[in-house]
Amino acid sequence: MKERIYIAGAGGMLGEAFHKVFGSDFELKCTDIDVNAPWLEYLDFRDRQAYIADVTGFDPQYLFHLGAYTDLEFCEKNVDATYLTNTISVENAVFIANQLEIPLLYISTAGIFDGKHEEYDDWDQPNPLGHYARSKFMGEQYVVAHAHRYLVCRAGWMMGGGKEKDKKFINKLILQLLSGKKEIHVVNDKDGTPTFTVDFAKNVLLLLRSQCWGLYNMVCKGTTSRLEVAKELVRVLDLADKVAIREVSSDYFKDVYSAPRPPSERLLNKKLELRGLNCMQDWKTALREYIDSYYPGIKSELAQLS
Ligand SMILES: NC(=O)c1ccc[n+]([C@@H]2O[C@H](COP(=O)([O-])OP(=O)(O)OC[C@H]3O[C@@H](n4cnc5c(N)ncnc54)[C@H](OP(=O)(O)O)[C@@H]3O)[C@@H](O)[C@H]2O)c1
Hints:
This protein is an alpha/beta fold. The protein is built from 12 helices and 15 strands.
């Protein structure tokens, strides 16, 4: 008999990878408010009673609480909705996991740091700058303080889901390239670390198998920046001599990306390393793998445009 995992908020970038990685070894129930795949069912985890009833009815061995509002500008403008979704719903998840006496997985973010240091290990003190980051940090703190058994895994700049689901940096750049742009503006003052969703899911599986509960930084290996990631993406897509990356400061995007963002959100997977459980790949390898596996045919599509 397969063990069961209930995955809440599974309709996004990360949920797609969790469905793929955990789907063969476990029986899954995947829910979201955005039912965008046949393997998803509807559940709004802000509805405490519905969340309790649905998870209890499935009677899983693990509860994965993945979902959140992840658009920083939306979060700055919709503060109550943000805390209801990103923090209070996590309190619901902790209640359910404790009642069923099962471990809880919660996903936090590298964005909870203020960026005054170049990089952060698992024990550095967060100091969130905006409401998204604060709501995620409050969720993290609640899990650590109250869940009986938990994994809190902090992701960096998410790469995952491909054209259909990737709402973040990589797909934003790809959309510009597909629109025929030959010049792309990229900030030169933001450091961080990408996180390939599939590698992240595999590393969570490793932690779960080893039962090393606790809080972990979980990002790709290596240190980098928005600028370097953009340059590497253009190289991976064979467009290095056809597309120019123009360096700008964050000020250039101040109207579009108005939410506060730290100058550095680079994480070190110190605890994973010390436990010998770090299976995250180098970010360049992961980026190449992401493009090859999630954007088949993109290179020839782009070549035809140039
Ligand atoms: N994306 C990143 O760069 C990043 C970085 C670090 C950490 N994280 C964390 O990783 C986790 C997964 O994020 P992701 O990258 O997969 O983001 P995503 O693609 O935005 O997926 C999040 C999913 O949660 C859903 N959701 C929102 N409110 C919900 C509710 N009340 N009930 C059920 N589902 C709800 C969203 O639906 P809607 O689309 O309809 O809102 C969306 O389908 C989140 O906890 C996020 O904070 C993300």
